[in-house]
């Protein structure tokens, strides 16, 4: 495990203890929405497209999804970005989450596409969690095991 991955695990575990299942203590929906909308605008400008966006996720641990159409990318499939309500976390997936294993993603997700997305996320203060890292079994402190079987479920799917 790399030092960056160790740091992410520490962060994920801290965030797991930071509030309820849907959002952490001190969560500011208006600020989170404004930054998410800025991300959508930047993605659409960078990729010369109109992304498919889900903004309404009541009672969920994620704030929203952005799907960049395949014809706007150099990648082999559309690209999905999911923004969590927790700790400025974001995950980037090729296709739907868990559609491709790590090796397939490394091969099929164009490096320039990935770099543009992660640079935008970083510039806006998001922390990108590698999808393969989030696949680990959820073993956190919240009593979510019947709903969240992985850390991806915990921070990017749970409703």
Question: Any key phrases for this structure?
Answer:
6 helices; alpha+beta; globular; 159 residues
What's a concise summary of this model?
With 159 residues, the protein is an alpha+beta fold.
SSE order and pairing:
Elements: H1 3-16, H2 29-47, E1 52-54, E2 62-68, E3 79-84, E4 89-94, H3 102-108, H4 111-123, E5 127-128, H5 131-134, H6 151-156
Parallel strand pairs: 4-5
Antiparallel strand pairs: 1-2, 2-3, 3-4
Model description:
It is a single chain. The chain is α+β, with helices and mostly antiparallel strands and 159 residues long. The protein has one domain (3-156). It has 6 helices and 5 strands, in the order ααββββααβαα. It has helices at 3-16, 29-47, 102-108, 111-123, 131-134, 151-156; strands spanning 52-54, 62-68, 79-84, 89-94, 127-128. It has a 5-stranded mixed sheet with strand order 1-2-3-4-5, with helices on one face. The N and C termini lie far apart (30 Å). The model has no long low-confidence stretch (mean pLDDT 91).
- Helical percentage: 25-40%
Largest sheet: 5 strands, mixed
* Principal-axes shape call: globular
Q: Helix- and strand-based class? A: alpha+beta
Q: Write down the overall mean pLDDT.
A: 91
Helix run count: 6
**E-strand count:** 5
- Structurally, how many domains make up the residues? 1
Task: Return residue spans where pLDDT drops below 50 for at least 5 consecutive residues.
Answer: none
State the end-to-end CA separation: 30 Å
Please write the string of helix (H) and strand (E) elements. Answer: HHEEEEHHEHH
Q: Strand order of the main beta sheet, please?
A: 1-2-3-4-5
Radius of gyration: 15 Å
Percentage of residues in DSSP E strands? 15-25%
């Amino acid at each position: 495990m790399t030092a960056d991955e160790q740091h992410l695990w520490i962060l994920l575990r801290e965030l797991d203890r930071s509030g309820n299942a849907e959002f952490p203590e001190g969560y500011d929906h208006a600020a989170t929405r404004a930054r998410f909308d800025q991300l959508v605008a930047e993605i659409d400008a960078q990729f010369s497209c109109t992304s498919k966006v889900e903004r309404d996720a009541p009672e969920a641990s994620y704030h929203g999804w952005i799907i960049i159409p395949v014809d706007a990318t150099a990648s082999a499939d559309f690209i999905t970005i999911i923004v969590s309500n927790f700790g400025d976390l974001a995950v980037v997936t090729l296709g739907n989450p868990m559609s491709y294993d790590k090796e397939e993603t490394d091969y099929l997700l164009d490096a320039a596409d990935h770099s543009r997305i992660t640079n935008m996320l970083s510039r806006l203060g998001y922390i990108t969690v590698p999808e393969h890292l989030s696949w680990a079994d959820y073993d956190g402190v919240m009593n979510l095991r019947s709903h969240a079987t992985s850390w991806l479920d915990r921070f990017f799917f749970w409703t």
